[in-house]
Amino acid sequence: MSPRREHRQMSEEEQRTRGAAAQGRHAEGTLQSGSRFSRGNATTIHGHPAFAGYHFADGVFRVEIFEPVTDRTARRVGERIIDRRECLFAVGAPGRFDNHLHRITCLSETGHSLHVYSDDALQGVTFTEAE
Asked: Could you give phi then psi for residue 28, rounded to 5 degrees?
């Protein structure tokens, strides 16, 4: 078992440091953001609104998938290594921000991705990893 890790939503300064490039509302209220990651950068364990789409443009990433244990803890149930251009998407329950629980870690020197959401992804619920 891995040690319990405390995670929280990143501050605006941390998002800039991580390299969140741009964010803006587009047609029908969708939100998109571009991110630049450096080796070792990892997101919190977090959820998203009803729709979330990801395009990994370059770099190598680990995408860990989680399922909730309690309302604030989650257990890792799988992972996928992304080592080429690839797109993923998830569809969940409308009006919720705990869909598609995951954590993304950059394994290469740098990596870039584009994210498209049906609503404000910064409202995503964050979780800690269950022991």
From this structure: 55, 25
- Cα 74 to chain centroid distance, Å, stands at 14
Residue range 69-86, pLDDT digits in tens? 999 999 999 999 999 999
Q: Residues 110, 54: contact at Cβ < 8 Å?
A: no
| Average pLDDT score over the chain | 82
Round to whole Å and give the CA distance between 32 and 70: 29
Phi, psi of 18 (to 5 degrees): -65, -30
> 37: closest CA among 82, 71, 76?
82
Cα radius of gyration (the chain): 14
Residue 39 one-letter amino acid = R
As to burial, measured by CB atoms within 10 angstroms (0-12 exposed, 13-18 middle, 19+ buried), residue 89 is exposed
Counting beta carbons within 10 angstroms of the beta carbon of residue 75, is it exposed (0 to 12), middle (13 to 18) or buried (19 or more)? middle
Instruction: Give the residue among 62, 87, 66 at the shortest CA–CA distance from 78.
Output: 66
